[in-house]
Design a protein that fits this description.
The protein has 2 helices and 4 strands. It is of the alpha+beta class. It has a single domain, classed as RelE-like (YaeB-like fold, 2-Layer Sandwich), CATH 3.30.2310. The chain has a 4-stranded antiparallel β-sheet, covered by helices on one side.
């Protein structure tokens, strides 16, 4: 089991449902409905959902999306 699966397993059900719904929308290409922001000095993007941050890479030409990380927001989230 990887770190992403472990975090999803440990988070509250309400948060898990919200995060999984956003991840599903992201993977289905529904980018216009999501509040996506590019991280400064990085090639990664993020989506905020409650206290969690979904960090991902996006190739706009091929529409390839790779979810890199899911983190609980704290001071070290973007370092």
């Amino acid at each position: 089991m990887n770190d992403l699966e472990k975090l999803l397993e440990r988070m509250p059900t309400k948060d898990r449902r919200r995060v999984l719904a956003i991840m599903t929308g992201l993977m289905e290409g529904k980018l216009a409905t999501l509040r996506i922001e590019k991280l400064k000095n990085s090639s990664f993007y993020r989506i905020r959902t409650g206290r969690y941050r979904i960090i991902f890479s996006l190739n706009r030409h091929t529409k390839f999306i790779k979810i890199e990380d899911l983190r609980l927001r704290n001071e070290a989230t973007y370092k």
